[in-house]
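Repro case for the chain-ordering regression, as requested:
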Amino acid sequence: MKRITIYDVAKEADVSLATVSRVINGSEVVREDTRIKVQEAIEKLGYKPNAIAQGLALSKTTTIGLIVPEASYFYTGQIINGLIDVAKIYKYNIMLHTTTEGITEMNDIIENIIKSRVDGVVIFNDKLNKEELNQLTRYQVPIVVIGNRMSDETVGSVYVDYAKLAFDYACDCIKQGKKQIALIEDRKNPAMIKQLREGLTRAFEENGMTFENYIEIPKEYRSSYLFLKEYLTKENRPEVVITYRDSQAMAVMNTAKEAGISIPEEMELVCILDSKYNAMARPQISGFKIPDYDLGAVAMRLLTKMLHEENEVSDKEIELSYIFTPRKSTK
Amino acid sequence: MKRITIYDVAKEADVSLATVSRVINGSEVVREDTRIKVQEAIEKLGYKPNAIAQGLALSKTTTIGLIVPEASYFYTGQIINGLIDVAKIYKYNIMLHTTTEGITEMNDIIENIIKSRVDGVVIFNDKLNKEELNQLTRYQVPIVVIGNRMSDETVGSVYVDYAKLAFDYACDCIKQGKKQIALIEDRKNPAMIKQLREGLTRAFEENGMTFENYIEIPKEYRSSYLFLKEYLTKENRPEVVITYRDSQAMAVMNTAKEAGISIPEEMELVCILDSKYNAMARPQISGFKIPDYDLGAVAMRLLTKMLHEENEVSDKEIELSYIFTPRKSTK
DNA sequence: CTGAAAGCGCTAACAA
DNA sequence: TTGTTAGCGCTTTCAG
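-- result from build under test --
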């Protein structure tokens, strides 16, 4: 079965291919009866325009590239969902790329993206560095970065200010007299953790103290749980523990229970990236609602704006806010 | 900055564009010194072949379409990961499409897929029915379905036999004298649940009984937890509860605890789709390790096979197996 | 309002 | 071994 083309439709409707093209693209200048004639031919033959050929002719693909970390957390999924939902509205397709931890295949991905001539790129990834970003901008591909604040001529960003989050929360704690605050490392998300640490450090400094309770999980431990099991004791426990991910919060909760530390009475626990699992733990774990879905949606919206608007988009750094959800693991 | 094309390279290297094309595609018949000359020109100009133009010329895109449900569970993420990992090996790109619950936008997606002329499609989705599948095969797009056993000329599938899983497990239980087995509904995955139900039903029948403990969550309840809270009591409790998802297992665990039912002594609990969260619960929840990553990887491998092989691929229905992981919620 | 024809960038016979 | 040229399917001036 030969794939049917615009020529077939033209022949069937007894018009030129230019006319067919016009009705496909909803051009105004086609007489009603010829339009109908063409539409009938399209219907009859089951013709579908070839997006590849259109892409070639127009030098645009109406697809955008999306780069996300391979680690498939719920969070990433939500970002993708948000992204896709608004991409659908604007008829954009998504070309999905993932980066494996550790391996420097970023260049392959960039190469790929350039070759596939996507109209724009959204990047949610710690691993892309400035230089690689430059490589992309050199090919004038508009880019929106999720998670890091940055922008230039062809780069925009959507992010949450984790430093501020940590700063504000720590200040609150300190005001209430809770000064033993610990932050647990998460190697998977160095950039976020760095921001949190900055916020905590600044909060302590502004209160005339120094933050020094950054708990690193030694590499030889296969999980946070195994380390915390030895680390946390009734005697050696912070007043407030902050984790980035729900799984770490659960690890803290489990080890605390085993060590006979009661939460929240003897130790409070808060998870930055809130999830439904936090609500399923007992006691339920307090967390910050980070607007994951919106990060994706807003990023895509920004990108389309950059793609469509002639003159440069004015506001290319968009900060999204979070909401603290107190549950049972904090007083 | 004009995008540089094969013509620019040809001019720079002082050869014809055909020669440039040959070195790009690694044709054997190019003299070494001209090859080098061309390669230098490519390097100098920073030329990247336009995949769109290649696609048009070759009538193939080296991209495949992937349709997944929007609900972003860890499970889906793993499937995508597996898919992408092998897609990378074979240099295929991924066009990602998601289906929103309820809305019949499946036709839009199919339309889109056909227009974009992907070489093949992988579908992990309950919602695609036979008719829509036919629509795709009519356009001779090779398809691999994840989750449902089926195949025909251009369709293959990779799946786990949930019916067998449920059957075997139920038989074991019955053999041990545990006859009060309950299965909890999961509206999000009707197809899987249907299979599980079939397996249970058959197991009971073959043992001269009937399975009637299918717990439906009434629509007016916003979560399984809220319903189970009323439903489960010390008096009214099955001996074994089977859930599909970790979140439902956690809901059972929490409500059981609140009702004073001890797990596993008074009631056993097993989750079909195992996850790391099951291991974080206390007591840890037993589950079946479903090969999520492999489902994606094998599906992609099968698709490439269908794409490359001249003669029809012989074995287009691939069953993957699961492993029971006993933990603390079962005896 | 419609048609003819020149690209869009690349591949693949076919010649040379 | 290399160059010439005819498509691949569609859009878009430019004429008519």
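Ordering looks correct now. The first strand of chain B starts at residue 63 and ends at 69.
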